[in-house]
Amino acid sequence: MSGVGPEPETVRVRTVVSGRVQGVWFRDSCRKAAIAAGVAGSTRNLPDGRVEAVFEGTSDAVEKMVAWCAEGPPRARVVRVETTPEIPRGEAGFSIR
Prior knowledge:
Layout: E1 10-20, H1 26-37, E2 40-45, E3 51-58, H2 59-71, E4 77-86, E5 94-96
Parallel strand pairs: 2-5
Antiparallel strand pairs: 1-3, 1-4, 2-3
Helix pairs in contact: 1-2
């Protein structure tokens, strides 16, 4: 027996964050937090003032990023976080769109 467990399952979640989340460095802070957590995906501003982020990685890492979105960077005032599970696409890296 090699002692190596099974590969962790990859999950993907689309997150939409409402509140004061544009103009407060939310996307760049999100990118940095995602890279530190080992999560792939992207983030972008939506025309209605919300921010959308897609996270793909292990369940624990993605949950950590969804929790981060509920707080955001210091100047953000998050009111609501909506999440929708999606089918993983094998993303690599994290981008700001």
